[in-house]
Write a structure and sequence with these properties.
CATH topology of the largest domain: DNA primase DNAg catalytic core, N-terminal domain
Number of domains: 5
Number of strands: 16
Number of helices: 27
Largest sheet: 5 strands, antiparallel
Strand order of the largest sheet: 1-2-3-4-5
Shape: globular
CATH architecture of the largest domain: Alpha-Beta Complex
Bound molecules: zinc ion
Structural class: alpha+beta
């Protein structure tokens, strides 16, 4: 590890950095736990140790230090991870370091694309203030947006012009970079080149889409004209190196603080809904941008809360999107409530027509997920005959099966049975089967591991040159036979030969790694010389006792065969062992 990395690591607070991605709860004097961001789980098996500065997941086995965490979760290389950690912790870096020219190129490219988006946003904002922007301004004020609100969300106007944006940006980037930005359209030429480029968004209101840290990475643009010529009502940036639709939650940058504070988020469909709700004073609101939730979005949200109020449009598409989202969120263990606004209004119109207080009241009256679903089932299959009941039941069962808590499942089932008029015994039978298929609990990785083995593991995590590490290392190298048969034997070998690697990362075998992580979480203090001595004496003792047993058997065998030469040698060895055992009071 470079000096820079080393110094960043010493200054960085791993709990704070990981805490930005995972909701951590204190689980011990110096360790924290939360839901693992790298695999699906309902009960926390992800641990972070504040002093030892590592994380480990007992569910999927990932572990490492603060850089490996950031690298994994942000999907970036080591140098970029260092930069991110330094930035999060306010540590100044001397200069950028890259592993490869490729990495340096990608990082430059991202930087350039962010810069282009920033320039484009500023330019769109400028256009909105010009006389040509009058139509757009009128539209926005008609939707109740004040100039402050427009400025807050950096809403702009893309004029009906093919070339103006390109002319504005071409001094900052070459054509290839402009093409990559997604801000332009182009026609593929016959020779394979992309030909000339022109503005993708024209005569549209532009809503910037920011990433989690507030940098603009894409746009949604709403047509001001309607009709075939105007194209789709909403047009999004295409997928670019900066932007992937399914991975972004609109408004997360502005909402994340409030979401953490209130420990819940409101989910709406469209950007306009989201902006209206936010401006109504409800700031913990996010938009999924028109579609059902993706798994990446759920994982992103899970870092901030596990409670949501879903407020999708009440039309069929909205209801379907709500149901799909509910399915995904339920599987991830979210607590879900559903709001359906009276009069079939979407959040934006509801707030404009009835006012913010009415909307807040509607949020307060949000129904629990199960009540919403039971109502939906009765709405979809309204008959009271047994055929409708079976259909309604089949609609509900998958939802019930996905609920992580046994208690909620039972309660849901009883409710459904009662409201649908179904014999609850039938439902309970179905449920019992669903419950049986649920995942088993994880067995603690340290069960069956002795105190001595735990001391050895911890001791071998120390630094070479330290008396404890050196004593233990010398014992393993000079008396390998004493370590035979230990569960932790191969782990100790890996630790001994790890060089500059982190202890956890030097062990590739999953079970041993989990074991080490557990031991490191249980005990924080470094191994003392007395402990090391105790462990080594204990090993020696066990070894001698084992050897004594083996010698007794070998001696009777030699007597039986009349092999006096062998018998003499074996007896001599046994006597010396007996003496040694007596000396330590174990004879
Ligand atoms: Zn995991």
């Amino acid at each position: 590890m470079s000096d820079i990395a080393q110094s960043v690591k010493q200054q960085a607070d791993i709990v704070r950095v990981i805490g930005e991605y995972v909701r951590l709860k204190k689980a011990g004097a110096q360790n924290y736990s939360g839901l693992c961001p790298f695999h699906k789980e309902k009960s926390p098996s992800f641990s972070v140790h504040a002093v030892r500065q590592f994380y480990h997941c007992f569910g999927c086995g990932v572990s490492g230090d603060v850089f490996s965490f950031v690298g994994k979760i942000e999907n970036v290389g080591f140098p970029e991870a260092i930069r991110i950690v330094a930035q999060k912790c306010g540590i100044a870096l001397p200069k950028r370091e890259y592993n490869s020219p490729e990495e340096a190129r990608e990082s430059r490219q991202r930087g350039k694309l962010l810069e282009l988006h920033e320039q484009a946003t500023a330019w769109f904002e400028e256009q909105l203030r010009l006389p040509e922007g009058a139509v757009a301004r009128e539209y926005l004020s008609g939707r109740g947006l004040t100039p402050e609100a427009i400025g807050r969300f950096r809403i702009g106007f893309a004029p009906d012009n093919f070339n103006a944006l390109r002319e504005r940006l071409q001094g900052s980037a070459d054509v290839e970079m402009l093409r990559l930005s997604g801000l332009f359209s182009f026609k593929q030429q016959e020779d394979g080149s992309s030909g000339s480029i022109y503005s993708r968004f024209r005569k549209r209101i532009t809503f910037p889409i920011a990433n989690e840290s507030g940098r603009i990475i894409a746009f949604t643009a709403r047509a001001l004209d309607s009709g075939d010529k105007a194209g789709p009502k909403y047009m999004n940036s295409p997928e670019t190196p900066l932007y992937s639709k399914g991975q972004v939650l609109f408004n997360l940058d502005k909402a994340k603080q409030t979401i953490r504070q209130h420990d819940f988020a409101i989910l709406v469909e469209g950007q306009m809904d989201c902006i209206s709700v936010y401006l109504a004073g409800v700031q913990n609101v996010l938009a999924t941008s028109g579609t059902a939730f993706t798994e990446q979005q759920v994982n992103l949200l899970k870092r901030f809360t596990s409670k949501v109020v879903v407020n999708f449009d009440p039309d069929t598409a909205g209801a379907n999107a709500a149901e799909k989202s509910i399915v995904l969120l339920t599987e991830e263990g979210f607590e879900i409530k559903v709001v359906t606004l009276e009069g079939g209004l979407d959040p934006d119109r509801y707030i404009r027509e009835k006012g913010a207080p009415a909307y807040i009241a509607a949020l307060r009256s949000a129904r629990r997920q199960q009540d919403y679903l039971i109502d939906r089932a009765r709405q979809l299959f309204p008959g009271r005959n047994s055929e409708s009941k079976v259909k309604a039941l089949n609609f509900l069962l998958p939802h019930i099966r996905r609920m992580p808590s046994r208690l909620t499942r039972d309660e849901f089932a009883a409710d459904a049975a009662q409201k649908l008029g179904i014999d609850s015994a039938v439902l309970r039978e179905e449920l019992k089967q669903a419950a049986a298929r649920r995942r088993e609990k994880v067995v603690s990785p340290t069960s069956g591991v002795s105190q001595v083995e735990k001391i050895l593991l911890r001791g071998f995590c120390g630094e070479s040159g330290h008396p404890v590490f050196d004593t233990l290392a010398a014992a393993l190298e000079s008396e390998p036979a004493q370590f035979e048969g230990l569960t932790v034997r191969t782990a100790l070998e890996s630790l001994l030969h790890r060089g500059s690697a982190q202890p956890l990362e030097s062990i590739s075998e999953g079970r041993s790694r989990a074991l080490l992580a557990q031991v490191l979480l249980e005990e924080t203090d470094p191994v003392t010389e007395q402990e090391a001595q105790f462990a080594l004496e204990n090993l020696r003792l066990q070894f001698l006792e084992g050897r004594q047993r083996a010698l007794r058997a070998a001696i009777s065998e030699a007597e039986r065969k009349g092999d006096w030469g062998l018998l003499t040698a074996l007896t001599a060895e046994k006597l010396s062992i007996d003496r040694e055992l007596r000396a330590v009071g174990a004879g």
